[in-house]
Every structure is written in structure tokens, then in C-alpha cells.
Design goal:
With about 200 residues, the protein is mainly α. It contains 8 helices and no strands. Helix content is about 75%, strand content about 0%.
């Protein structure tokens, strides 16, 4: 092999590179190691995929950090919205309690409101994400067609992922609504009716 690539100094043609095909992807690492032992540099698609994998791990960590911050801000927004609703509807809560609504009824009312916020927010978020993905696919396809290349589908949202995202949004909203719902249920009806 060395004589074939380097020509052995005998005036034979030399080659800058040699492409070797493996019968199976699992043989690539063994072949690459054997070539390196002979003193040649070797590069395979597995090397490129390792580098890409590391880039995507860092990218996934960044997205995870961004998602956790967004989740925290969204949860605080839900808590704030429900606490403001308690202040604005304090008199209404007092009327409900004076008419016989139990603490559980008031808690359920605010809990349902939190769940509805999560449901509509989740549906809106999934729809917005899908639209952004479609816009990216459309723009990329236009660019590739101008270069006389076939279009590609960049974005794909499976139904189970969309349903999971909506369910997760509802669960987060319900968890965020626990404190405001409990606070609304503990309101004293007399003080709530007196509230201006």
C-alpha cells in the first residue's frame, strides 16, 4: 500500500489521497486504525459525525438552559396573572362564598382558569413553532431551487410531540396555579365583600 500511494521513488505515479470503502459501517474504525498504524492520515464520516455530535450537545445544553429560563418566566407570569385576578375579583369571590361556594369550589375555579391558560398558551406555542418551521422550510426551498438544487423539508412536528408540548404546558400552568388557587380559596368572605 505504501509503495502504491507514494510510488516508492521509482518514477511510478503517486497519489495525494486514497478512498477506501468498508463493507460495513462497523468495520470503519478498525480500517481507520489499521491505516493510521501504517503511518497515513485517515479521515472518515464517523470523525465528522463525532464533531457534529459535540456541537449539537453544546447546542442542546444551550437550548435546555434557554427553555428552563422561559419556563420559569412563564410560570411566574401565570402566578402573577392569577394573583392579580384574585385582587380584581375579590368581591366576586366573596359573593360566591356568601352564596354557599366552598373553598374547593373557589380553588377549582382558579385551577380551571390556570389550566385554560396553559391549554391555549400551549396550542398557540405549538402553532407558532410550526409556522416558523414552515417559513424556514419555504425560504430554504426557494434558495435551493435558485441554485438548481432540490428542495428539502427542514421542519417536521410529529403529532405526539405537539400533543406532549400542549399537555406539558397545561401541567406547568396547573402547578403554577396551585398557590393562587389556594390563596383565593382561603379568602374570608366578609373581608372580600368589604373590599373596594
Amino acid at each position: 500500500m505504501q509503495d502504491f500511494v507514494r510510488g516508492g521513488g521509482s518514477g511510478k505515479p503517486t497519489y495525494a489521497a486514497l478512498t477506501i470503502r468498508a463493507k460495513s459501517p462497523k468495520d470503519v474504525l478498525q480500517i481507520e486504525d489499521a491505516i493510521k498504524k501504517l503511518g497515513f492520515n485517515a479521515f472518515s464520516l464517523l470523525d465528522a459525525s463525532k464533531t457534529l455530535r459535540q456541537v449539537f450537545i453544546v447546542f442542546d445544553m444551550f437550548l435546555g438552559l434557554f427553555a428552563s429560563l422561559a419556563l420559569t418566566v412563564a410560570s411566574l407570569g401565570i402566578v402573577n396573572t392569577l394573583l392579580m385576578a384574585i385582587l380584581e375579583r375579590r368581591r366576586e369571590i366573596g359573593v360566591l362564598k356568601s352564596l354557599g361556594a366552598t373553598d374547593g369550589d373557589v380553588r377549582s375555579l382558579f385551577f380551571a382558569e390556570a389550566g385554560a391558560m396553559g391549554l391555549f398558551g400551549g396550542i398557540f406555542g405549538v402553532a407558532l413553532g410550526w409556522l416558523i418551521g414552515q417559513a424556514l422550510t419555504w425560504d430554504t426551498t426557494i434558495y435551493l431551487r435558485r441554485q438548481d438544487l432540490p428542495g428539502v423539508k427542514i421542519s417536521y412536528v410529529p403529532w405526539w410531540l405537539a400533543a406532549s408540548a400542549i399537555a406539558f404546558a397545561v401541567v406547568v400552568s396547573l402547578v403554577a396555579g396551585l398557590y393562587p388557587a389556594g390563596r383565593a380559596a382561603r379568602l374570608n368572605p366578609v373581608e372580600a365583600l368589604r373590599y373596594e
